[in-house]
Design goal:
- It is built from 12 helices and 9 strands.
- The strands form 2 sheets. The chain has a 6-stranded mixed β-sheet, sandwiched between helices. Strands 7-8-9 form a 3-stranded antiparallel β-sheet, with no helix packed on it.
- A hairpin with a 4-residue loop joins strand 8 and strand 9.
- Helix 3 crosses helix 7.
- It starts with a helix and ends with a helix.
C-alpha cells in the first residue's frame, strides 16, 4: 500500500526507520495465535454474510509498512479501516516516545496524501474500563477519524462468544448447521484462524474459501441457489419415520424422532453429494435401513 519512498518523502528518514523497525517487531512477535489474530477472525466473520450474499469486496492486511498496522481492512470505496490492538489495561494515547496519538495522526495524513482516502482508525483494547478511559481522553485532534473499541481478551471459546454475541451469531451463519453444537462452532473458528495465520494478506473471500476448503464438513456452502433433486425429495419424503432438512447446502436428517441423526460430510455443490443423490435415485430405498446403507 505504501512504499518506503512514500514514507520518507512525506515525512523523513527517521520516520521510515521507525516504521520498518515497528513492522519487523510485529513480524517477530507473530508466533502462535495472538489477541490480534482472534480479532481479525472476528472482523472476517462480521463481513461474511455481506461478502457471500451481496458481493461486498474487502481486503485484509496485517503488519505492513504503516503507522496503524495490526489489521487493515479495505472495503470498496469506504474509508480505510485501521486497527491497533493492545491487550493491556494501562494503554494511553500519549505515553512513550512514539505515542499512539502521533501514529493515528500520521496514518490519517498518509492515507490522504498517498491514497486520497479517508481513515477510520480504531484502538482496540481488551479491558472495558480502559476502553472507557481512552474514549473519554481521546485527543481532539484525532477524534474526527478515530474510535475506541472493546474486544475481550481470549478465554475458552464458548465463554468468549457469550461476551461477544454478534461474533457467535456470525459463526452460526457460517456453520454448516442451523443450530451448531459448541464443538462445531469451534471447528469454524479454527478453520478461519488457520486461513488467516497462513495468509495475513488476502481478500476476505479468499480467506473464507481457504477456511471452507480446510473444513468443508463444518462450513456452509457459498452457493445460494442449491436445491435437492426433485426425485430425491420424493424418495426421502416417503420413508417412514424419516425426517430431513436441507439448508446452507447440507442435508440434515434424523430417524425415529432423533434416535439416529446425521449430516453427510459434504455440501450439495460437491461431486460426492451428486454421487449420493444418484445412488438414492438408482436404489430407490423405501425404508430407513435401505437408505442408511447409502448415506
Amino acid at each position: 500500500m505504501y512504499t518506503p519512498a512514500d514514507i520518507q518523502q512525506q515525512f523523513d528518514a527517521a520516520t521510515l526507520a521507525y516504521l520498518q523497525n515497528k513492522t519487523r517487531g510485529g513480524d517477530s512477535g507473530q508466533k502462535g495465535t495472538r489477541y490480534e489474530d482472534y480479532f481479525a477472525v472476528y472482523k472476517l466473520t462480521q463481513l461474511a454474510q455481506a461478502i457471500l450474499e451481496t458481493g461486498l469486496t474487502a481486503a485484509f492486511r496485517s503488519q505492513i509498512l504503516a503507522f496503524v498496522d495490526d489489521l487493515i481492512i479495505d472495503i470498496d470505496a469506504e474509508p480505510l479501516q485501521h486497527y491497533q490492538l493492545k491487550n493491556s489495561p494501562t494503554v494511553s494515547w500519549n505515553a512513550g516516545d512514539r505515542p499512539i496519538q502521533a501514529d493515528f495522526d500520521k496514518q490519517q495524513q498518509l492515507n490522504q496524501a498517498q491514497l486520497n482516502r479517508e481513515s477510520d482508525l480504531s484502538l482496540v483494547v481488551s479491558d472495558a474500563n480502559c476502553a472507557k478511559r481512552l474514549q473519554n481522553t481521546m485527543p481532539g485532534a484525532i477524534a474526527p477519524f478515530s474510535r475506541v473499541q472493546y474486544f475481550p481478551k481470549p478465554s475458552p471459546l464458548l465463554a468468549w462468544l457469550e461476551q461477544v454475541p454478534e461474533w457467535k451469531q456470525a459463526i452460526v451463519y457460517l456453520s454448516a448447521f442451523d443450530n451448531p453444537e459448541p464443538d462445531k462452532m469451534e471447528y469454524v473458528v479454527k478453520a478461519l484462524m488457520g486461513a488467516w495465520i497462513t495468509c495475513k494478506t488476502a481478500s476476505a473471500l479468499e480467506l473464507l474459501t481457504i477456511a471452507q476448503q480446510q473444513s468443508p464438513q463444518y462450513i456452509r456452502s457459498f452457493q445460494t441457489d442449491l436445491t435437492l433433486d426433485v426425485e430425491v425429495k420424493t424418495i426421502l419424503g416417503n420413508i417412514p419415520d424419516f425426517r430431513y432438512s436441507f439448508s446452507k447446502g447440507f442435508l440434515h436428517w434424523d430417524y425415529a424422532d432423533g434416535l439416529i441423526s446425521g449430516t453427510p460430510p459434504y455440501s450439495a455443490d460437491t461431486d460426492a453429494f451428486r454421487r449420493l443423490q444418484e445412488r438414492i435415485k438408482e436404489r430407490k430405498p423405501t425404508t430407513f435401513e435401505e437408505l442408511e446403507n447409502l448415506l
